[in-house]
Design brief:
By secondary structure, this protein is mainly α. The chain has nine helices and two strands.
């Protein structure tokens, strides 16, 4: 069996291949979208990876602060289940297991290896893929014989990479995420299959407008799924920071501050401030991702106007310019969202 990416990409290479040596036109704008999308993925991933480093530092600090914490990546911590009980001693930070009982507290899983930032990487890839799709069809709308096979192959690769990432993310890492990795896998698979179908239909259709009219709703459904997944991520990640990481770091600081020297206390303070910054940024990150998806949905709708063929030359020029702005806006919002959360 061929690798997943190749199975998705090979049919796309057939799109617009016929007569391309004669009919291929300059694709500066479309190639610019691909280059920008690739740069967005690289920069966003670097930012999200920095979150993993911060959280791993926080994990080491937490484990070192309490002898009850095992030296493993996955720990259970005590979280207050209600108001503090007057005069009650502070519990240890870590529980022996998820079933350990303590009055006034419940246990929560704290897992750092496959972190919430990793769950955003498939979203970044799929936003980049849809942006390339929109740029490719816009190029065809502007110049019907434009060869966009390389651009769509790049988009198909991003969809395949997104699916591979969802397969690698461990389930149940963040609390109460309703099968987020399963949803992302379905969306990535649907997007990759979309490119296969697009290539097949476009190779047989007389005009790309008919293909767009048949497939525009598919892209809208994929974008709706992406927004739903962002909402799920926002809710679960907010709870993860608010209930577990930030509060646990504060408790660890209380346990250890009297025994720490200046540099150690300073390092502890930096970890707490970083966790609080990340917690405060979660909603902004999610909002930016949702706005990026909205911009791509608007670009998908704008393609319909461009491909109908009933615009005046002036209207077509204006609509084409607006659609290009929407595409680049989506890419900018994506990288801004990731880098606002993960400091690089």
């Amino acid at each position: 069996m061929r690798p997943l990416g190749l199975r998705f990409i090979a049919p796309v290479l057939l799109l617009s291949a016929s007569g391309c040596a004669i009919n291929a036109l300059r694709l500066e704008g479309t190639n610019r979208v691909t280059l920008t999308a690739n740069a967005v993925v690289t920069q966003a991933n670097a930012a999200l990876d920095s979150i993993k480093i911060h959280r791993q530092d926080a994990l080491f600090t937490l484990i070192a602060s309490d002898p009850n914490c095992p030296p493993v990546d996955e720990i259970y911590v005590f979280v207050p289940s209600g108001p503090p009980i007057r005069g009650a001693p502070l519990p240890p930070l870590c529980a022996s297991d998820k079933d350990q009982q303590l009055v006034g507290y419940r246990t929560k899983l704290l897992h750092f290896t496959s972190v919430s930032g990793d769950r955003l990487k498939p979203t970044v890839l799929m936003i980049g893929a849809v942006a390339e799709y929109a740029a490719a069809l816009k190029a065809i709308a502007d110049r019907p014989k434009t060869d966009v096979s390389a651009v769509l192959a790049s988009a198909a690769q991003k969809a395949a990479d997104a699916k591979a990432l969802t397969d690698a993310v461990l389930p149940d890492v963040l609390p109460a995420i309703p099968n987020l990795e399963t949803k992302q896998a379905k969306t990535a698979t649907a997007l990759a299959q979309f490119f296969v179908d697009l290539a097949d239909e476009a190779s047989r259709a007389k005009d790309v407008g008919s293909v767009y009219r048949k497939r525009a709703a598919d892209i809208d459904a994929i974008l709706d799924s992406l927004k739903e997944e962002i909402v799920d991520w926002n809710s679960a990640t907010t709870r993860a920071y608010a209930e577990i990481e930030t509060s646990s770091l504060r408790r660890a600081d209380i346990n250890e501050r009297n025994g720490l020297g200046f540099e150690a206390r300073r390092a502890f303070l930096k970890l707490i401030q970083q966790a609080e910054f990340e917690q405060a940024s979660i909603k902004k990150v999610a909002d930016s991702f949702e706005e990026a998806v909205d911009a791509l949905a608007a670009a998908n709708g704008g393609l319909g106007k461009l491909l109908r063929g009933d615009l005046s030359p002036e209207q077509r020029t204006q609509e084409s310019r607006i659609n290009e702005e929407r595409i680049f806006k989506a890419l900018k919002l994506t990288v801004d969202a990731a880098t606002a959360w993960g400091v690089i």
